Amino acid sequence: MISATLYQGKDGLTGCRIIGHSGRAEAGRDIICAAVSILGCTCVNAMETVCGIVPLVTENDDGILAFQLPVVSPEENAKAQILMGALKQGLSDLAEEYPRNVQVHLKSMFQ
């Protein structure tokens, strides 16, 4: 099961943690894992190349990709929220289509 947690701050989504494997097919042939990986990696890469924002990234060979947005200006945040919204939409679409393989959680960073 892939678990994706999106973190909600007062000014929008602030980061994401994706962990696990879908288990739908063997490694290297799993279209769900590939789709989730592409969504996460594209979001992280586009933050830098499109928005000029360098997120704080953690990834490893155990199937974890996590990133957090740094403190940015309101203008930069507006751009970042478009990418974060696209990531949320893509992950949610996959979770709806493959509920046994992908779960999406929204975690508020408010106390």
What's the quick description here?
With 111 residues, the chain is of the alpha+beta class.
Write up what this structure looks like.
- With 111 residues, the chain is an alpha+beta fold.
- The chain has one domain (2-108): Alpha-Beta Plaits.
- It has 2 helices and 5 strands, in the order E-E-H-E-E-H-E.
- The chain has helices at residues 31-49, 74-97, and strands at residues 2-9, 12-19, 56-60, 64-68, 102-108.
Please, how many domains?
Answer: 1
Taking all Cα atoms into account, the compactness measure Rg is 14 Å
Q: Mean of residue pLDDT?
A: 94
Give the termini separation.
28 Å
Tell me the CATH superfamily: Cysteine protease Prp
Structural class: alpha+beta
Q: How many E strands?
A: 5
Shape, per Cα inertia axes: globular
What is the fold-level CATH name, i.e. the topology? Answer: Alpha-Beta Plaits
Strand order of the largest sheet: 3-4-2-1-5
Quaternary class: single chain
Largest sheet: 5 strands, mixed
Strand content: 25-35%
Order of helices and strands: EEHEEHE
Instruction: Give the CATH architecture.
Output: 2-Layer Sandwich
> In percent, how helical is the residue content?
25-40%
Discrete helix count: 2
Tell me, what is the CATH class?
Answer: Alpha Beta
**Uncertain regions spanning at least 5 consecutive residues:** none
